[in-house]
Amino acid sequence: MSRRFEGRVALVTGGGSGMGESIATRFAEEGAVVSVIDRDAKGGERVVDAITQAGGQASFTQADISTADGARLAVSTTVDRHGGLDILVNNAGIATRYGERSWDMQEEHWDAVIDVNLKGVYLCTKYGVPELLKRGGGAIVNTASIASEVVCAGANYTASKGGVCMFTKTIAVELAKQNVRVNAVGPGYMITPMATGEREGLSPAEQKERLDGMAANIPFGRCGEPVEVANAVLFLASDEASYITGQLLCVDGGYTAV
After folding, report:
1. Contacts of residue 119, Cβ cutoff 8 Å, sequence gap at least 6
2. What is the pLDDT along the chain (258 residues), one digit of tens a residue?
3. For helices 18-29 and 226-237, what crossing angle results, to 10°?
4. Closest of 67, 21, 13, 255 to residue 153, by C-alpha
5. Of 97, 163, 151, nearest to 125 (Cα)?
6. Which residues pair with 36 in a beta bridge?
7. At what angle do helices 155-175 and 120-134 cross, to 10 degrees?
């Protein structure tokens, strides 16, 4: 059976855990050579080890894509190691729980989220697009959020994800005639370390309580699995989506339909 991404190179930011890990793993399963980018060396190396042990091809680069140097490193290392770039997945993102009112949060809390979630998408695109054009085109998939559609987080997060959606639409139009498609996925409440509270040190019981609270407002009655977002990303990056660009595909169990 043929694999959709055989011979293609996919760069996945934030690939060391959560949705990024699932995205990187699924691309490798479908034949892509995957460049995993993350600030967390331990997580990124773990993901690459798992991919290679399963027979896939992957490499890891530690980089902070919220900086120009980090984004440039992520792209240049990918191209140097694997010969080019066909697919860029701008997935890296953070969320904060400071308990602040959105309109007067501390400036550094605003900047931290905007820099990773929005500026990082811009920077990786800035350095990634020239490499896609060298291969005759390609696909970009950005991770937005249902927070770009409904208020479900602080203003720094919602502003960053709303910005990702409009950035996606704008560059999709600009790049359409150069054979580069640009789309976004909008995950809902997913079972990831960021959503469960694992990164905040919550106990398993506390994490379950948080997830149960989220699930109560979802038509499907459950939170999503990271692989469900990954499958949507792969679709948007594939030839099956050859006439789709500038779109947001929500993967949210019906949350934004209510």
Report:
1. 66
2. 568 999 999 999 999 999 999 999 999 999 999 999 999 999 999 999 999 999 999 999 999 999 999 999 999 999 999 999 999 999 999 988 767 788 889 999 999 999 999 999 999 999 999 999 999 999 999 999 999 999 888 999 999 999 999 999 999 999 999 999 999 999 999 999 888 888 788 889 999 999 999 999 999 999 999 999 999 999 999 999 999 999 999 999 999 998
3. 50
4. 255
5. 163
6. 12, 60
7. 20
How far is CA 190 from each of CA 35, 150, 217, rounded to the nearest angstrom?
23, 16, 13
Contacting residues for 153 by C-beta, under 8 A, at least 6 apart: 95, 145, 147
What span, in angstroms and rounded, lies between the C-alpha atoms of 7 and 249?
A: 26
**Kind plus residue range of the DSSP H or E element containing 22:** helix 18-29
- How far is the CA of 258 from the CAs of 90, 112, 189, 219, in angstroms? 28, 31, 14, 8
53 by Cβ neighbours in 10 Å (0-12 / 13-18 / 19+) ranks as: exposed
SS3 (DSSP) at 250: strand
CA 160 to chain centroid: 13
Sign of CA dihedral 34, 39, 40, 42: positive
Q: Which candidate in 127, 157, 189, 255 is catalytic?
A: 157
Look up residue 186 and give its amino acid: G
Is residue 189 among the annotated active site residues? no
pLDDT tens digits, one per residue of 47-77: 999 999 999 999 999 999 999 999 999 999 9
CB 244 within 8 A of CB 183: yes
